Amino acid sequence: MKKSGYVIILILLSILSFSQVQAQHSFTLNGVITDAKTGEDLIGASVAVFESGFGTFSNNYGFYSLTLKKNTYKIVVSYIGYQTLKKEIDLSKNTKLNFLLNPSSEQLSEIVVNPEKRDANITSINMSTERLNIKQIEYIPVLFGEKDILKTIQLLPGISTTSEGSSGFSVRGGSVDQNLILLDEAPIYSASHLMGFFSVFNSDALKDISVYKGGIPAQFGGRISSVLDISMRDGNSKKFSASGGIGLISSRLTMEGPIGKNEKTSFIVSGRRSYADWVARGGGFVESDMILYFYDLNAKINHKINDNNRIYMSGYLGKDKFGYEKMGTDWGNTTATLRWNHIWNSKLFSNTTLIYSDYDYGFKITDEASMSSGIEDYKLKQDFSLYKTPDNTLKFGFSTTLHIFNPGKLILEDVEKENLLMERKQGLESAVYFTNYRKINDKLSLDYGLRLSMFNQFGEGWQNTFDNNNNKTDSVWFNNGELMQSYFEYEPRMSASYQLADNKALKMSYNRTAQYLHLLSNSTSSQPTDTWIPSTNNIKPLTAGQFAIGYFQNFLNNKYEFAVESYYKRLKNVTDYEDGTDILLNEAIESNILSGDGRTFGLEFLLKKKYGKFNGWISYTLSRSEKKIDEINAGKWYPTKYDKTHDISVVTAYKINKRIYLSANWVYYTGNAVTFPSGQYTYNQQIFPYYTERNGYRMPNYHRLDLNFHLDGKMEKRFETSWDFSIYNAYNKYNAYTIIFGESETQTGTTEATKFSLFGIVPSVTWNFNF
Amino acid sequence: MSKIKQLKYILFFLFAALITSCEELIDVELNSANPNLVAEGVIELGEPVWLRLSYTSDYFSKGTTEFYEYSTAVITDENGNSEILQYEGDGLYCGSEILGEKNTNYTLNFTEGKSSYEASSTLFPPVAIKQVSFNKTRIQTLEENRTAYKINIVYRNNPNQNNYYLFRFYVDGELQNNWYSLANSSYYPDDSFLVYQPAHVYFDKGDKVRVVAYTLDEATYNYYSQLNDLLGSDLENTSTPYNPRSNFGDNVLGYFAAWSYDTFEAEVK
Question: Fewer Cβ atoms within 10 Å of its own Cβ: the N or the C terminal residue of chain B?
Answer without folding.
Answer: C
